[in-house]
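Researcher: We're teaching a course module on how sequence relates to structure. For the next exercise, students receive a sequence and then see the predicted structure as tokens, so they can try to spot secondary structure elements on their own. Here is the exercise chain.
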Amino acid sequence: MYSLLKKRRARKAGGQGGEEPAGEGSAHDTVKQGRAGFCPKCYTDVELAHGPGGEGDTGHCPKCDTDIADLPRGTPVKQAIVVRTDLEMGKGKIAAQVGHACVMGAMRVREARPEWFEAWRPSQAKVVLRAGGLEEIEGIRRAAAEAGAPWDMVSDAGLTQLEPGTVTCIAVGPAPDELVDRVTGGLRLL
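Model: And here is the predicted structure for the students to work with:
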């Protein structure tokens, strides 16, 4: 945590992430180093350039050949937690496991996709869904990885109701709603 704060302070002070002129013939005045966006079509990371006169960040996706912009203001972002229902966990145990998944997922996204984290942080929107067993959780993990959605699995420590290492749930996101729904859209609410 301390190192994250140091990096952020260094960036604000101009130690990292400053601006440098773009190459000749560029359509943009400056390039913000370290400024990453994503393609809303294929979710590939894209380096963004700051437009002339401060008119927003733009870029181009090399994977699908789409002109893109940074995460547009107002893009809904949420987190989905999928819980195994075959384990017969008590209500308190489920609440604790969902809490672990929420925090783990948010911490990963804060580090890897800060623009998604910042868009999600004000509302911290989340939905809790059900999965019938480990096979379904594994399928969700594979679907998330294929779609480019961040995910985190929770394995229990085995101190109370479950055996050590039992996978209890998976977090998908925080990420744009469309991406989370692509992975978890067919699941029922817990």
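Model: If you want an answer key for the exercise: The CA atoms of residues 13 and 85 lie 49 Å apart. Helices lie at 2-12, 91-112, 114-120, 134-147, 177-184.
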